[in-house]
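Fold it.
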Amino acid sequence: MAEKKRTYNAQMNSVIRALKLLEILKNYTDSNHKLTQSEVLNLMKELDGCCTEKTLRTDLRNLIAALNPIVEEYKTHREDFRIVYDKMEEGRHRMSGIQYLHEFSNRELELLIELLKSGADISREQCTVLENKLKRLGSKYYRYNTDSVDSVPQFSTIDKTYLKENLDTIKKAIAQNKKVSFLFNGYNREGKLSPVRNRKYLVSPYYVLLYGMKYYLLANTGNYENVSIYRLDLMTKIEIVEEARKNIRMVKELEHGNITDYIEKHLNMNYDRPVTITLKIKENGYTALHDCFGDKFLYKKSIDAEHDEIEVVCSEHAMIDWAMQFCDRVEVIRPQSIRKKIKEKAEVLYRKYS
């Protein structure tokens, strides 16, 4: 029994040493900072005074064998390895240039932190905790350039706890292929949610999208064939209904499952059917065009020294708002129905402000 206990303790000690060794390599090495085996030993002795050169050599080799791929078995790449070294001293079997290859590069960690800071449903406290965890995935030497990056805080009227509950319920309904029912609301003068109608909506849910710092549900309502869009933070009393949702192939614009194409054609989550729209655009209007449509436009011709003719496919309602917002840079040429509606809105504005 005593012999078994000594063997168990020895095994436990080797596990503990390996974990400590791995932590040292993660913290003290990167592409610009490498260690010799003697330097690793000194760091290990600070944590474990009993560590010897022999035990370190054994633990280091075991760790490399456990974390690195077996080169002979398959074609490997540098990113497949976790611990590498530059050379081995002849005779003494001492390694130099030892480095831990982190799972994420410094730039990748910065990108993740920047994405985290732009999150729509996370508090500053949660963001700080997660940011510090991400930073610990790199070495201690790197100084992150993310302090100047911050997100615009959401208005306090959005209840993030309730939003998360809605999100979890809808994800569960989608996974179970069920419909959901809910009250849809707007804000009143007291800043409280108030139902837009007394009875609940019953919809078939398909996708949840994060767009403009808010979550939206893409669904189908009742006997309609088109897509309906609902903001999750405006939904209350949401429940999963024991009724199978409508097959997505029966919903126009989602039947082919190309959600990216749908979003590109429905600016600001307007859900009316997109149409081809011809625009007259000034040279200084292309930035606004790219901000909203990316490269999803078709150059047709040059109209004069300052203007081009282009085409986009977009929701009619979205285009009316967008064209009015950038009226100093763009003009809708076709279709005439959109020109007429923009003219009517402009006349209302003129009467209001004249």
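The chain has four domains: 12-100, 105-153, 160-264, 269-353.
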